[in-house]
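fold description:
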Amino acid sequence: MVILLTARQQLVDRLSGFSAGGDDYLAKPFHLAELTARLRASVKRAAPAAAIAVGDLILDAVDHRVTVHGTAVALSPTEFRLLATLVAAGGSIVRRRELVATGWPEGAQVGDNTLDQYLTRLRRKLREAGSALTIGMARGIGHRLS
């Protein structure tokens, strides 16, 4: 989060600040109350959603916890990242390379079979927890949560 505090007030300066990566721009003179309000708003926008509910599943990204019908589902960190990626896609297909990129550290050598094994375990854990959600496959493209 970058808030630019400056004496420059011209439109070209503000646009330049945003183009340089600024998230907000506040020109002098400004009131401390306005700066405080802008800081609160920026922090609020940057904070991850506490929990996302999809069907009978609740994924809490802050506590790294998944529950189905109120019962905790034990997931490995990789399984959690894969599920979080599928949940965030909102039912759209997530390409295999994107799942690998979010599931494992950059540069990790992950074969297709490894991803398939993790998704199989994730499917089994959701099924055993009684979830109606399934992880479907679009052959040759990717996977989706439905």
Observations:
- The longest helix spans residues 112-128.
- The two ends are 34 Å apart (CA to CA).
- The beta strands are 3-6, 24-27, 52-54, 57-60, 65-68, 71-73, 94-95, 135-138, 142-145.
